């Protein structure tokens, strides 16, 4: 399996940050009845309640007999003693009697009620039969304590419930707020084997490592810097697309320098209960200062660091601003010799508040780009360190066929290959596993779907249209694979990737991409004279390309060489151009796409036999790889570009 570098678990639910490598702090002490004491208390209460309940029910055991029955027993001389209070009489028999009124069993003790109108001479009767009239109850009454407990029982239950809930909350995120458990400093996370992430776990971005080496060096020997009066940059901003290893790098810097690492995602600060974001930031920094030199890492800082003002202020806007201000204040407060370095990561450096990048704050921005071919190979090596590879595995070849993939994509690819090997009950991962995993990652998992023959035929023409146009145009990306096996939402897929990484594109290349993307629709048009819904994604792609060419890359004479459309659709500044310009942009986009569509249809008509041949091969095989596809179309494969 690849060696993932998981983010350490959150130390405590009530602190929004994680830390590693910080010295241990004593575990938090509980103030509440907890552990064994709580258990004993609960047992005691249950015992008392049970007793009370028992005595309560015992009392009800004395049968209430009719006054007639009582008079009869007195007359029979069978009553030994009685106790009376008002008209209520309790008593005891000398010999037990069967229960009257058809009740089951016998009784000796009893209760009865003397009617007010009874003018029998009870006292004379009792004296005649030597019945003792006692001064204390014959039937055991509930004690005062029991009475008290019974009346208190509901309250006791409430208290128990409260303690229970409070303890549950104490261990959940509300602890600090409920005022029950006091917040404690983060305790260090024990990493397995004490191994921390270092630069050895990061590959393919050597320039970035070079820039961060300064930071590592400073953290390792702060005295030398202090002696020369040199100040460290207050903060370093890592900017780059998702999955390029920014989070990984931050941890590697801390691991490399061997200093404590505190990390928090900016969104976690404001996710917390409203009003605590700023104080959490203060706490985080004060913890970091205590163990300096150390690193504070704020991930996804754009969620709180977006330019202020402008744009729609959503709820929680103030919270965001306060949290950001607190971070800025903390960074301003550094004297530079404290040795706390702040790293932050973002995929959107363009939307950040300029206040963040002022000198003394995040005054260094390091761009982290997706890796090139050699970088991809190195990253694959790292993520296959713990995977047994078969002799035929050629990671260089895998790296060649994965342009544009990021470190996270490659880590995922290695894992998918290993999973496939496990599924196939192999003891090693083979090149075929890698290729199949790549297909799955790039195209999505195959979906079993019974397609009507007619639709299958149309899909085959659609994909052949994409593929043929890709093959016919010089300089276009070679076609790697065509399939009419449904995958994900698509009914078929044509995959073209470049031989080497591309960093900029010519106008001809972009037009070729548009023509290729329209190829599916054009083929359906040319062959069946119908348009189906299967081209939705294609059109999206076409629109994006055309918009870029006209509005951003200056490829239209009429619009001219200016940026008419912001890169970010939700730019706080809105549109960059006047409505008239946008009209022209719209017009030009249409012109380009229409021209490309004409060209696509023309090419397909001209090469109709090739289109038919490719479609037949696809219907027969369902999936064609690169050589098979070019052979079926009767087109020579383009020579491999030098890398
Ligand atoms: P980001 O924070 O830029 O979105 P991450 O640091 O979270 O990306 O990367 C996710 C995972 O991808 C990492 O844990 C690592 O396994 C892998 N990865 C990304 N970039 C690299 C790289 N340059 N070298 C090695 N592994 C990488
Ligand atoms: Mg990240
Ligand atoms: Zn298509």
Can you offer a commentary on this structure?
The chain is an alpha/beta fold. The protein has 5 domains: 191 residues, P-loop containing nucleotide triphosphate hydrolases (Rossmann fold, 3-Layer(aba) Sandwich), CATH 3.40.50; 58 residues; 76 residues, Signal recognition particle alu RNA binding heterodimer, srp9/1 (2-Layer Sandwich); 71 residues, Helicase, Ruva Protein, domain 3, CATH 1.10.8.60; 181 residues, Peptidase M41 (Methane Monooxygenase Hydroxylase, Chain G, domain 1), CATH 1.20.58. The chain contains 22 helices and 13 strands. The strands form 3 sheets. It has a 6-stranded mixed sheet with strand order 1-7-8-9-6-10, sandwiched between helices. α13 crosses α15, α18 runs antiparallel to α19 and α18 crosses α20. It is elongated, with a radius of gyration of 41 Å. It binds adenosine-5'-diphosphate (ADP), magnesium ion (MG) and zinc ion. The site of adenosine-5'-diphosphate has 19 residues, from α8, α13 and α15.
